[in-house]
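Review form for a predicted model. The reviewer records the input and the model, then writes brief findings.
Reviewer: anonymous (R2)
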Amino acid sequence: MIGISLLFTVVAVGTVGFWYLEAQQQLTLFDTLYLTITTITTVGYGDIVPHTFYGRIFAVGLILSGVGVAIYVLTEIIGSVLEGRLRADLGVARVKRSVAKMNNHVIICGGGRTGEVIADEFRSEGLDFVVIEQDPKPLKELRKKGIPVVEGDATKDEVLIEAGVERASGLVSTLPLDADNLFLCITAKELNKGLEIVTRASSKEVAKRLYSIGVKKSVMVEEIGGRRLAKSLTKPAVVDFLEFVTKTGETSLESLTVEKGAKIANKKVKELRIKERAGASIVAIIRAGKVIANVGPEDEIKE
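Model under review:
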């Protein structure tokens, strides 16, 4: 800003100075502006030149001061552009090195509004993750937040490989089109058969196809959002409680898998005394894909 201000000042002084000192030529302000620009840029076409002694002395001073200011401003502008590009290139290189070192991380495909929320959740939980995004606008916002991003089309093999899909433990796809999500899941599974995938779907039919190719969970975002909106009106206290549990961190919901041979396996809830020992409560038991709610003391924890 200082350099630009100096340049404008030199141009303004030069324009007025030539107009005053070369009054005998009856030059307009535009003519003297033109003469000033050609002088400080050392172009000097020769079509308009100072004729008076003082006009020439003024031109010498303008060249000595104006050329230096012009070079300074030009250098600052070029430096800023190169520095910005260099910083961006270094940032991309740093992210590539960071992603290359990741193992058992999660890949988020799609860095839009949904992807950004997922990234914030993963970051709060301390998970290693990387986002794949190709749209420049969300890409810029994610980088501003310091979120590791791989630029490109998430359905392409080379982009997934750059994101470390072969070493990843999970993948979340938030792409807006079902066809893209389906193709992405097929591609990711081919590259890493043990990869756990969670993806969005627009309908039950699409979800069924996604499950058939090995997707762990297919989420119908619009349906869940609609139910949440309805519950917010009919049962607001329930929604407030769920938001408190999932957002504040003061209370959390956790899912635990009872492995074979675990100490708590094949025991009744009342025998475990989990509330007394850990201050936790069993909200539900999932067994063979079915959810057992309203867990009572006689319910049994099985492998």
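Findings: The longest strand covers residues 129-133.
Further findings: The two ends are 69 Å apart (CA to CA).
Recommendation: see findings above.
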